[in-house]
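quick one if you have a minute, typing this from the bus. theres a chain ive been looking at and ive put its sequence and its fold in token form underneath. please have a look and point out which stretches look like helix strand or loop to you. anything you notice is useful, everything is just below.

***
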Amino acid sequence: MKHAVFFRNLNLGRPRCPTRAQFEAAFLAAGAESAASLLTNGTLVFEARTKTLARKVLAQASQTMAAECGLREPGFLRSVEQLAELVALDPFARVDRDSVYEVCITFLDAKHPALPALPLVSKRDDVVLLSATEGEVFSASRVVGNTPGSPNAFLEKLLGTPASTRAWNTVVRLVDKHG
């Protein structure tokens, strides 16, 4: 069974972050049958026979990266099958892509606080939270001044809990490649 993990604040090769080789090796050493980093933003696809085993692999790999390079950020685990189901929902079908900077998905921990009613727009009008599933929030960001909005920062402040955001296209590409 293929799983994907989305780490918060992990950029390969930066301070307190693993290199691509360390990232993949941490998962293999933790028991993953395969591990492949996607891009440089802390996204990785790995194989583990069950969801329980995938959680154990993630926990062990996280401990290894903390010891080797000081990474102490959470990783948000999803099966590639779950991601394919999200892609099939086509959550941005009604969004005029020319009117926004980017459409995104934010991964939340299973024990996150309740979300307010959606849609919800940030005070700067640079992020709009459009819809959500049980563990993901779909959003669009706009440029205000010279700076695009940050759905991750907005959600972390709103909920008081860590999150990890990716451009929607990253998830679509992951599913196309590994689904």
